[in-house]
């Protein structure tokens, strides 16, 4: 419609349209509002989703960036127990010298023994892993431990087969550390695992008696902390607090635990046993799932001759006063009289470890063995410094076997077997060096039990049924094939005498009796130090080295033997041979650096070795000492003094560093500083011969004849045997 009429009708049409849309709004408006709300909610969700993603992504990117930068900068360390390496064209897994830093301060981390595990396992090879602590390692001399004896037994029984036995045990660790180690071993194609552990659960890492950090009650917190320490960022943050840490500056053996007494009623011990059982089951399951067959061993300890390290004090602290006269009766071997007195004190002291041990000891001497064994076992369980596996630990081991006995594994009840073999069925110093570390007969017996099971298992897998166990090498032949000599026997007795002369052994009831026995053994084996015995003993080592070219254990024993007999050049050559096989061996590199650093013509090589050691393990004081010695030999006395200062700052009791520092001061004409160093030595060891000699000469040069005469008299009074020993230990050149 057009024209004037249309124009007249337009307002009416507009009104109509308005009314039409107004009517439609009743239906459309709610829809529009609803769509708007939905869109807004979607936008809000998207916004919060973005914010949440950003809140997670940005920290991840920051942490990842920091981690990358720190790794590129070389900050931190690998936390793996085993590192890939190449040697003589072959690929291996080797031990990581810093693996324990994740679990304890570096100053307390013990060094693993050298391992070279081929990454490509040869066809037909039977590979065996030993998992455990120092007892499984073979302390005090791993060359004669369980794994070495087992190797000899198997090689001689099956000359047509090839066996690889790798002992992954480390001193002072426990199940908390062995559990993650087992996860790495699972990928290394082990055919058999020998699991032998349980002594360090209370006093080791994360235990209530640990000196390596707090005992953590929550497994989740512990695992979270360990996971963070796998990051270089976590390691860097941890290092910032290391300076304020109260951890000991250096490993000083069991004496570090003097203040770590644990009451047998402490509720934390129940948690210790629970965690041990859980960790052990996780380790066994890991091994079984990897295809390995498991030998799980109970843990024997020295019951008879290891008196308790500590008895928790009574309220009135009367136990020492009451027991003292009875200890005197025992010393006088009046066992019946002592037993009568002890029995009268039962109501007062029945919760004391010392009382139980004295009861058991007297009953053993009176040949009442069954009762004696019960009391001695109770003394172990009540010991307030529990360095020995108690009855609950062995119960957990047996329970672990029950949980998996349908799978390919065996329980080697070594605790029961060793009791059956011991005199009166009570293990003592006839089988043990100290509280838990076995002598050769004990290690041989365990290796024999393991070998028997291996033989039967291998036969049943090949032939379908187990046959009679073979006739194994005798203990005497096994010791001969491992290179045990009079010198090595003497060396072990000497090492153990030093150990038992320190806390906590020196405070035990029967300390003097045990030391007397060791001194007698040292006297009997001292023939191995006679010059006349050198040729015969050297021939033993040379014969074994010729037939076992790639077995560095024989080379190491020979190198140490040569050092004792003063064959420096031959010892240097032999240490070089050791390092051709295990170039990563820190102790071997240290020994070589020490020998090379004794003369100027080889001191440059010594310096290079020592600097490598310091770079790899800067927290070990004696590595700095080796560097200082090498610098001193090159007449770089000012540099040497700074290194010796570093050494004694880390370990003030490192007397060799004080002596060398005094000698360096003397070389640069600073007599007062030199005198102070030597006097510091005499404060710690009043009969130290080299310190007296240096002071004699310094006072004589200064015209102080009175002081010079005093030191001359002390030198003349010094026992000559002791003088020779000290000269061998610290030689100035």
Radius of gyration: 34 Å
CATH architecture title of the largest domain: 3-Layer(aba) Sandwich
The CATH first-level class of the largest domain comes to Alpha Beta
Number of strands: 8
Percent strand equals 5-15%
What is the helix tally?
30
Given as residue ranges, the uncertain stretches (5+ residues, pLDDT < 50) are 1-25, 720-733
Tell me which oligomeric state these chains represent.
single chain
CATH superfamily of the largest domain: SGNH hydrolase
Secondary structure: helix percent? 55-70%
What is the count of structural domains?
4
Q: Tell me about the largest β-sheet.
A: 5 strands, parallel
* Helix/sheet category: mainly alpha
Biggest sheet strand order reads: 5-4-6-7-8
Shape: globular
Descriptive report:
There is one protein chain. The protein is mostly helical and 733 residues long. The protein has 4 domains: 75 residues; 253 residues, SGNH hydrolase (Rossmann fold), CATH 3.40.50.1110; 64 residues, Serine Threonine Protein Phosphatase 5, Tetratricopeptide repeat; 149 residues, Tetratricopeptide repeat domain (Serine Threonine Protein Phosphatase 5, Tetratricopeptide repeat), CATH 1.25.40. 59% of the residues lie in helices and 6% in strands. The chain contains 30 helices and 8 strands. The strands form 2 sheets. A 5-stranded parallel beta sheet has the order 5-4-6-7-8, with helices on both faces. A hairpin with a 2-residue loop joins strand 1 and strand 2. The longest helix has 69 residues.
């Amino acid at each position: 419609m057009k024209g004037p009429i249309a124009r007249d009708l337009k307002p009416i049409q507009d009104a109509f349209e308005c009314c039409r849309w107004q009517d439609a709004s009743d239906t459309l408006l709610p829809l529009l509002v609803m769509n708007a709300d939905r869109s807004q909610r979607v936008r809000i969700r998207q916004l919060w989703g973005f914010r949440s993603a950003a809140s997670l992504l940005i920290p991840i990117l920051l942490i990842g960036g920091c981690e990358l930068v720190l790794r590129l900068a070389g900050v931190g360390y690998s936390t793996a127990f085993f590192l890939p390496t190449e040697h003589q064209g072959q690929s291996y897994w080797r031990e990581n010298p810093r693996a324990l830093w994740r679990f304890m301060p570096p100053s307390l981390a013990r060094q693993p023994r050298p391992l070279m595990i081929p990454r490509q396992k040869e066809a037909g090879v039977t590979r065996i892993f030993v998992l455990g602590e120092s007892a499984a390692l073979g302390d005090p001399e791993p060359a004669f431990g369980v794994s070495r004896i087992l190797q000899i037994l198997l090689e001689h029984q099956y000359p047509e087969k090839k066996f690889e036995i790798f002992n992954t045990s480390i001193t002072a660790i426990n199940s908390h550390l062995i559990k993650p180690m087992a996860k790495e071993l699972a990928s290394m194609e082990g055919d058999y695992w020998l699991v032998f552990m349980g002594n360090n659960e209370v006093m080791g890492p994360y235990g209530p008696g640990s000196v390596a950090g707090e005992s953590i009650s929550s497994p989740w917190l512990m695992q979270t902390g360990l996971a963070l320490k796998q990051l270089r960022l976590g390691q860097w943050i941890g290092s910032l607090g290391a300076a304020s840490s109260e951890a000991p500056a250096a490993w000083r053996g069991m004496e570090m635990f003097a203040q770590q007494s644990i009451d047998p009623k402490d509720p934390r011990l129940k948690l210790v046993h629970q965690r041990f059982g859980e960790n052990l089951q996780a380790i066994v399951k890991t091994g079984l799932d990897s295809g390995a067959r498991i030998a799980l061993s109970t843990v024997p300890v020295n019951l008879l001759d290891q008196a308790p390290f500590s008895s928790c004090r009574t309220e009135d602290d009367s136990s020492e006063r009451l027991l003292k006269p009875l200890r005197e009766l025992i010393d006088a071997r009046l066992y019946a009289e002592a037993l009568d007195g002890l029995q009268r004190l039962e109501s007062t002291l029945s919760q004391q470890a010392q009382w139980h041990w004295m009861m058991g000891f007297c009953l053993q001497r009176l040949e009442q063995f069954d009762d004696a064994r019960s009391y001695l076992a109770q003394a172990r369980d009540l010991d307030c410094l529990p360095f020995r596996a108690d009855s609950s630990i062995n119960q957990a081991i047996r329970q672990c076997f029950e949980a998996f006995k349908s799978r390919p594994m065996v329980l080697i009840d070594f605790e029961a077997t060793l009791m059956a073999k011991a005199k009166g069925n009570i293990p003592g110093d006839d089988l043990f060096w100290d509280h838990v570390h076995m002598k050769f007969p004990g290690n041989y017996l365990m290796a024999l039990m393991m070998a028997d099971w291996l033989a039967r298992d291998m036969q049943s897998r090949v032939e379908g049924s187990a046959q009679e166990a073979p006739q194994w090498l005798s203990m005497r032949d096994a010791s001969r094939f491992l290179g045990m000599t009079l010198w090595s026997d003497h060396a072990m007795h000497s090492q153990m005498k030093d150990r038992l002369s320190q806390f906590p052994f020196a405070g035990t009831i029967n300390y003097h009796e045990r030391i007397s026995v060791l001194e007698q053994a040292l006297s009997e084996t001292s023939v191995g130090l006679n010059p006349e015995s050198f040729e015969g003993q050297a021939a033993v080592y040379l014969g074994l080295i010729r037939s076992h070219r790639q077995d560095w254990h024989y080379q190491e024993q020979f190198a140490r033997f040569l050092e004792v007999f003063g064959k420096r050049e031959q010892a240097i050559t032999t240490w070089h041979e050791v390092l051709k096989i295990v170039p990563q061996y820190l102790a071997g590199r240290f020994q070589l650096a020490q020998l090379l650093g004794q003369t100027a013509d080889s001191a440059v090589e010594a310096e290079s070795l020592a600097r490598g050691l310091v770079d790899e393990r800067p927290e070990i004081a004696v590595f700095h000492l080796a560097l200082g010695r090498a610098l001193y030999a090159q007449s770089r006395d000012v540099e040497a003094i700074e290194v010796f200062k570093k050494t004694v700052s880390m370990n003030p009791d490192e007397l060799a560093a004080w002596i060398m520092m005094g000698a360096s001061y003397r070389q640069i004409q600073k007599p007062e500083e030199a005198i102070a160093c030597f006097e510091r030595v005499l404060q710690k060891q009043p009969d130290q011969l080299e310190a007296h000699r240096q002071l004699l000469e310094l006072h004589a040069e200064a015209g102080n004849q009175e002081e010079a005469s005093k030191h001359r008299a002390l030198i003349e009074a010094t026992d000559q045997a002791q003088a020779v020993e000290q000269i061998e230990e610290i030689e100035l050149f």
